[in-house]
């Protein structure tokens, strides 16, 4: 894969409206949200949740250190959608994001958006454990816990629920300020919120373990992972961040273990993709600390074939990171021979080619990849190889199709802007950069760029009409988002 095209400013996130101690869950075989007593719809419709989710995702992209690595984004979304396909009460699309953060945590917010911290890969021993965290967060979404929390807050303190919502956004951009604002906003109603969110954690655990089992993962992974977190908090002066937003009394652990023990035992092997994603995350996104240690690689080298491949892949990643291109190529070559169509290996081979200025080799390798037409990661790789090989027309042809199919991927727009700039198509370069600005919530800048693009093409032309129509769409978004920006 081409290296991440740009890095956002570091910020963290919070899910304080979902925080609070959990109580033991009751045995229940369904994860359908009961109609009785559920009034979230009176506060937020599904359409409003989607609209708010769109707004907050744009703010998140602009302020948090999202990992825009296409391989990792593809992996967590495929894993997430496997879980979602076995969940009930799904009323929104789902999108999964990965943040470069060494504090273990995860949270979900409006519109089916689930955010994972990269530290989860360090703590999860297997894919079932990672999936257990994701299933828990998916259940927060399907049960509309944030909307229900807003409804509860609105009933008890109608003048403060809007302020609480605004504090969540503030926390995304400025963690300390956001936490302070939220604490102050909820000071008068904190006990009521805690009582409400006890049910949220209980419900997310109960439903999440069912989703986990139906998806083919080991249900024992949930209590095992919770126990790891509890053990860590016992021997640390500060508990893991995930326990601040998802408190873990021992009763919650006992309940998860009891539920898992009532389910049919299964033996589940982690996928090769899990080990590759773990090696890549620890090796490339570790905040300057060496997390892909020799101990991990040596252990994998003695494991099953998937772990052995991950060990060799991890060592090749490390060699590339140290600019030892020939060593990286030598380590990778046996893997390519064994699996010539493997996306992880093709991606790394391309990076090595480009690192050694062998652009023709990179282009030919990717052009001949059997999965090119169906694999967006390989398409981005090939487009990037064309840009590096100074063949912008070929890159633009790929990227115009790619951005049409994946309009929310800033990687495609960034590359398209580079390709159009190399071709001398100033208006199209500006239009691509406008899309990047819009994706990170900078709609004013996006409109300015598109206005400039519109002024550079023939008056009354189809291209000008397209730019002007897009400006109108962005202005409509501004109006729609205005209510949230004032919170």
TrEMBL record:
SUPFAM superfamilies: TPR-like. Residues 1-27 form the signal peptide. Keywords: Hydrolase, Metal-binding, Metalloprotease, Periplasm, Protease, Repeat, Signal, TPR repeat, Zinc. GO terms for biological process: proteolysis involved in protein catabolic process. Binds 1 zinc ion per subunit. GO terms for molecular function: metalloendopeptidase activity; zinc ion binding. Its cofactor is Zn(2+). The active site is at 137, 205 (proton donor). Functions as both a chaperone and a metalloprotease. Maintains the integrity of the outer membrane by promoting either the assembly or the elimination of outer membrane proteins, depending on their folding state. This is Beta-barrel assembly-enhancing protease. It comes from Buttiauxella agrestis ATCC 33320.
